[in-house]
Design goal:
alpha/beta, single chain, five-stranded parallel sheet, Rossmann fold, 9 strands
Length: 193
């Protein structure tokens, strides 16, 4: 019997469908009350449709640095010129309340979470159906994404794919319905009983 929550860290290239899959689990009637999605700090601007506190905590770089200095950030990274980080107090509080957490974070963050909470963390790498699918997926998600940013994201995706073998699970998101079913099976294997 687990005496605290489990952390599920979901990583993968930009456009692989990480967030969509996690949202699918969180909307499942049988699972949603047992899970909380970790909400990160970010210094990037809010995209259309995003909400403060739901998608991210949008803060200034000065606020981010103050939180980092005060050791209120569990793990952090700089990605495409913006800072992203996980609020430590939020995570500890949820685990103590027996809530299971979902993180959608980069490889560095995934390694750090696994290092800090080794017995409580399950890592899942989401692979796209193919790398050639990613530019379209990235553009579909945000029409304002510049060609140079897409190029950087694709270059990073190739490096990220090489690190997939270090994860507890690898899941291919070629068909969203099948990938979601597989993710739910992984989650249930670690939270049932």
């Amino acid at each position: 019997m687990q005496n605290r929550g489990i952390i599920f860290v979901v990583s993968g290239p930009s456009g692989s469908g990480k967030t969509t899959l996690v949202q699918g689990v969180l909307k499942d009637k049988g699972l949603k009350n047992r899970f909380v999605r970790s909400v990160s700090f970010t210094t990037r601007l809010k995209r259309t449709g995003e909400k403060q506190g739901r998608d991210y905590f949008f803060i200034s770089r000065t606020e981010f640095e103050a939180n980092l200095k005060a050791k209120k950030i569990l793990e952090w990274t700089k990605y495409l010129g913006y800072y992203y980080g996980t609020p430590k107090e939020f995570v500890d509080k949820q685990l103590k309340r027996f809530k299971n957490l979902f993180f959608c974070i980069d490889l560095k963050g995934a390694r750090n979470i696994k290092r800090i909470y080794p017995g409580d963390t399950v890592t899942i790498f989401i692979r796209p159906g193919s790398l050639s699918d990613l530019p379209l997926r990235i553009r579909r998600r945000c029409q304002a994404t510049k060609a140079e940013e897409i190029k950087k994201r694709l270059s990073l995706a190739k490096k990220e794919m090489l690190a997939a073998k270090a994860f507890d699970y690898q899941l291919v998101n070629k068909n969203l319905k099948e990938a979601l079913k597989e993710l739910k099976e992984i989650v249930l294997a670690h939270t049932s009983g």
